[in-house]
Amino acid sequence: MIESDDFVKALQDIGFDFFTGVPDTILGGIIEVLGERRLYTPAVREDEAVAMAAGAFFGGKIPAVLMQNSGLGNALNVLMSLNLIYQIPSLLLVSWRGFEGKDAPEHLVMGQTMPQLLETIRIPHRTLSQETIIEDLKWAAQTFMAQRVPVALLLKKGIVKAVQP
User: Structurally, how many domains does the chain consist of?
Assistant: First the structure.
């Protein structure tokens, strides 16, 4: 498990400098560190966070959006009709609730279908693993700029330290 502050530092080291999103327990440690460093702008909804990230990109920032996968459904219209159409990149850090059918019932359908959903809307994605986390971050940064599209990194529980066990 990587410490949240080390994960945030790795994101900053590769250039990400604007962070927004909607809280989630899996992402809680990351959001806590971002908040302590005054780098996090909270959003009310995931589609709003994606739109704020697009504005930040046009303002010269390199944005990352944090959300749980159920929020990905809320953000689909903005991702498809703004980011993908106008080639506005953003890193999507998406917690994978319902992974392998282990979670509350409301997370199971999105947990089962999220990778296929991202493939359907043509958003490149990888699932972070402890062994490949640095390579995954580098891939995300390279793909983000080369293709100028949103790129998703999927975070399962236990990869990045959460606020609660």
Answer: 1
